[in-house]
């Protein structure tokens, strides 16, 4: 293997990590936008406790559903940029998103709530599914 091939191979894995981080950052941004819209547009004048409670509910819901969807979307967007090992690349996207999520939870909550474990499992399923579906469609398209 030449150094150019090794660099290209390493870049694909780094790209998978980057897409995973983007998936988790997109989830965080979505939570912040929803909470800010609620606070400054849709429900002005509530107490800070009401906003905090809403933020926790939105964080739990969007963190699970949005995190899963963003992981699938970003893993799927990565697939045309890699030449093989689609399933493994999808898993790496999910693992990168999970690492950022868990790290943020430990830093912010000083622990990992049970909802984060569910969200992590769903992200892993989403990344794996994106890689599997792309690999399957890519194989079917080659045989036709």
Can you offer a commentary on this structure?
By secondary structure, the chain is an all-alpha fold. It has one domain. Helices cover 87% and strands 0% of the residues. It contains four helices and no strands. Helix 2 packs parallel to helix 4 and helix 3 runs antiparallel to helix 4. The two termini are 31 Å apart. The model has no long low-confidence stretch (mean pLDDT 90).
Encode the helix/strand succession as letters: HHHH
Distance between the termini: 31 Å
- Tell how many strands the DSSP assignment holds: 0
Low-pLDDT segments, ≥5 res: none
Going by helix content, strand content and strand pairing, the class is mainly alpha
Rg value: 18 Å
- The best one-word shape is elongated
Give the biggest sheet: none
Mean pLDDT score, rounded?
90
Percent in strands = under 5%
Helix content: over 70%
Helix segment tally? 4
The overall number of domains is: 1
Brief summary:
With 144 residues, this protein is mainly α.
Keywords for this entry:
elongated; 144 residues; single chain; mainly alpha
């Amino acid at each position: 293997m030449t150094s150019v091939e090794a660099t290209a191979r390493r870049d694909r894995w780094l790209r998978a990590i980057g897409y995973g981080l983007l998936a988790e950052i997109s989830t965080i941004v979505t939570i912040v936008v929803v909470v800010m819209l609620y606070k400054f547009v849709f429900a002005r004048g509530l107490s800070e406790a009401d906003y905090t409670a809403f933020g926790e509910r939105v964080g739990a819901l969007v963190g699970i559903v949005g995190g899963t969807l963003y992981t699938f979307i970003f893993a799927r967007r990565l697939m045309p940029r890699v030449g093989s090992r689609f399933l493994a690349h999808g898993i790496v996207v999910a693992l990168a998103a999970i690492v950022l999520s868990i790290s943020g939870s430990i830093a912010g909550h000083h622990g990992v709530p049970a909802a984060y474990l569910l969200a992590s499992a769903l992200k892993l399923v989403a990344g794996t599914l994106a890689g599997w579906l792309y690999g399957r469609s890519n194989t079917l398209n080659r045989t036709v």
